[in-house]
Design a protein that fits this description.
alpha/beta, five-stranded antiparallel β-sheet, about 400 residues, single chain, five-stranded parallel β-sheet
Length: about 400
């Protein structure tokens, strides 16, 4: 394993009521002091040492006598332990025969000990051992700090990502008498690759998007944001769903990094007529909950993935939502959710819960599906993002 090297001087605090020790240490370690490797501070009892520790925050090693006036070394060691700084190492010094106090010091967290008269060569080896431990601990602390910073950044990124998705429901209050719409996205990690979207194209038509980006984590989240923006921008032009995904595919192929792609179900819903024009680019086939109680899965995709192959003409299809029908779109984090026994949630179970929820409103449908997935998964870790959107045509 590569040895960690400390770049700053090692700061050593010597605590001893014998004045001669100060001269002895500075003389013996003069070369390291001159080179800026060691920096010594001196105190004559525990109280002086604590005062100095308040002024000099980054002391690395305390070399402390045990028997001192006003505050002895064992009391000082207790006070140092209360600071809860694992990178601060205490080397205790006492008379050769004072093994009881030395044993007590070691039991209370001292790094090592030396006996008087001090063998400076042996002390030098002990200090070097302490420095190795300090370097290891500081490296671990730095790594932990970086991980905490990354964790905080991911949490903020997750909040930003959720803010990107439409979150105001009902989204089109002026059409509340004609339709309902609800959606949710629950990422498996701090950030996810799934997304849903909806936007008004004109007074009668609304664009609906359900998509899943390949991969996980930050790269998928960035690609998700780019993909959502592209599809929305192209879709707002009012062109057919097939034309929208054809154009989006060309743009994403040109910008794709590490061969990333998305599966997309893009539909244009006519609020007045119930007509649903759609294009499925390699995505899960949605379901339609009919007003008569039946649960119908829409045809499987006949188009490729979006962003994977250039020069593809995506084809549109059409269907109609009748009064009381509900369109349910989802990503594979739903049907491919696993429980602790590695059993898959699957489409049969999804169809059963959809049949039970057929008379519910859109919010109750998406929340009911998520609750059933969580009941099935139990304590197993969520393996993929879960995204669901439901649209109902009212009577």
């Amino acid at each position: 394993m590569e040895k960690t090297v400390l770049t700053n001087p090692i700061k050593i605090l010597s605590v001893d009521d014998e004045q001669d020790l100060e001269l002895l240490l500075t003389q013996y370690f003069r070369r390291k002091i001159r080179k800026g490797e060691y920096e010594f501070y001196f105190a004559h009892n525990g109280l002086e040492a604590l005062t100095l520790l308040l002024k000099v925050k980054d002391i690395d090693i305390i070399l402390s006598d045990i028997n001192m006036p006003e505050m002895d070394g064992l009391t000082l060691l207790t006070k140092v332990n209360e600071m809860q700084n694992p990178a601060l190492k205490c080397i205790m010094v006492s008379a050769y025969g004072d093994m009881g106090n030395i044993r007590s010091a070691m039991n209370n967290g001292a790094f090592d000990f030396a006996t008087k008269p001090i063998d400076l060569e042996d002390l030098s080896v002990t200090i070097e051992k302490a420095i190795e431990q300090i370097a290891y601990i500081k490296a671990a602390q730095e790594e932990h700090s970086q991980l905490e910073s990354l964790k905080n950044d991911l949490a903020v990124a997750g909040e930003i990502q959720q803010a990107i998705l439409p979150r105001v429901f009902p989204p089109f209050p002026e059409n509340d008498d004609e339709m309902e719409l609800a959606a949710l996205m629950t990422p498996a990690r701090d950030v996810g690759g799934d997304f849903y979207d909806f936007f008004r194209i004109d007074s009668e038509r609304i664009g609906l998007v359900m998509a899943d980006v390949s991969g996980k984590g930050i790269p998928a989240a960035i690609f998700m944001a780019v993909s959502r923006t592209l599809i929305r921008t192209v879709g707002l032009q009012g062109i057919t769903t097939g034309q929208c995904l054809t154009k989006s595919n060309e743009l994403l192929c040109a910008e794709s990094v590490d061969s990333m792609f998305i599966t997309v179900f893009y539909a244009i819903y006519n609020i007045k007529t119930g007509e649903l024009e759609y294009c499925n680019g390699g995505h899960n086939a949605p379901y339609i909950l009919r007003a008569n109680g039946s649960v119908e899965q829409m045809p499987m995709s006949r188009n490729p993935l979006v962003g994977a192959v250039e020069g593809v003409d995506f084809q549109s299809d059409n269907t109609v939502l009748r009064a009381g029908d509900t369109l349910v779109m989802y990503t594979d984090g739903v049907n491919e959710a696993f429980n602790a026994d590695f059993e898959q949630y699957g489409e049969p179970r999804m169809e059963r819960i959809l049949a039970q929820l057929k008379d519910k409103n859109c919010r109750e449908i998406v929340d009911g599906m998520l609750a059933d997935i969580r009941l099935f998964v139990g304590n197993a870790e969520q393996s993929d993002d879960i995204t669901i959107m439901a649209l109902k045509r009212k009577g």
